[in-house]
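Hi, here's the filled form for the chain we discussed.

Project: internal
Contact: R.S.
Residues: 288
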Amino acid sequence: MSLDHLYLETTVHPGYGQFFTVERVLYESRTEHQHLIIFENALYGRVMALDGIIQTTEGDEFIYHEMLAHVPLIAHGGAARVLIIGGGDGGMLREVAKHRSLTTIVQVEIDNTVIELCKRYLPRHSQGAFEDPRLRLVIDDGLAFLADTADRFDVIISDSTDPVGPGEALFSRDFYRLCRERLNPGGVLVTQNGVPHIQRETFIDTHRRRTALFADAGYYGAPIPTYVGGLMAFGWASDDAGLRHQTLETLETRHREAGIHTRYYTPAIHHGAFALPRYLEAQLRERG
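And the returned structure, exactly as it came back:
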């Protein structure tokens, strides 16, 4: 492979993949848990991949992070304590920290090397959020933390990798059960849930697991170019069914009062994001 045609090819799904040209490698090594590379791409800016799978890019990370952070926080309307599982690049923390009403933010990340390297090579993601005085950063496995802690939260955000390797446990029934036990009454769990057009079984199976544990479970979505294959799904679970069905007027009022600046998220997008394509609704009915 010549330097003139250097590229990273990634195949998350059998028979389908994508590639990114690599203008310059900024860092590459194996951490305690996984292989990590951060490089520059002409279209997406700086890009991070773990074990050969693209995790985040400067070009479109704001869509993912805004939708996974602001939808549950605005829908809840009164969250004070938030738990982030994963999210070592800092983008999720950046968006969560915009909510001035929060008193406590706990982030649990299994790989401290990811955090340190992203602070250095992807500083636009965190934008100093790791220095927020409300943050308690815990280096641990997310499932183990939930099993051991007595803390409770209003919102739990699972910003995980795909359900392989270190991220596999964060799609299990045990993980969802522990999240439910650690949520305050009226709390919300949201999860990264992949691209359902391709990850059909994961989409159906995780929904079934959450439905068995929570009074209300569903999905919302957003198109994120990096995560190829169509609409990206975000899992939603709560014991308060009303939170998923806030009126547009309520969402607009809360967004205005929060005073946060966003590039993708709007109350109207939030309101419409829970409307799934008919074929995905049919899949959930088929196996639900």
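Let me know if anything looks off before we file it.
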